[in-house]
Design brief:
The chain is mostly beta strands. The protein contains one helix and eleven strands.
Amino acid sequence: MKVSIKRIDFTLPLPKYHTSGSVAFDLYARVTITAKPFEPIVVPANIIVKVPSNYVLILASRSSTPKKKSLMIANSIGIIDQDYHGETDEIGVQVLNFSKKNVLIKKGERIAQAMLVKIAKVSEFVEANKMNSKSRGGFGSTG
């Protein structure tokens, strides 16, 4: 699959998969920025992506980032819609510093990862008066 992207800063690399088994590619911080404790910030990720039809681009934390930098994606994941690819629609990664110290994010640092996921859209929501299945017990019922 070919995907159109636009880089803002050409000194930073294009996204790439780092191993043959990788399912996500890394996003790089376009600027050096400081994340203060417990204050979400948006880190510009240097690219605008034209997400293909029937796909969504999902942003997620890199597995090492919380341990190494005390940073996580502030809203668990990020969703990049198919129509978010205008000239100023640079992807921003909202991160939260969950430590008690300032965290420096350097320009060019890998700050998150992104993956394209095929989606299906609901053509119509049909309201039901009753669900004819046995209840599992509600929230947390599998734990």
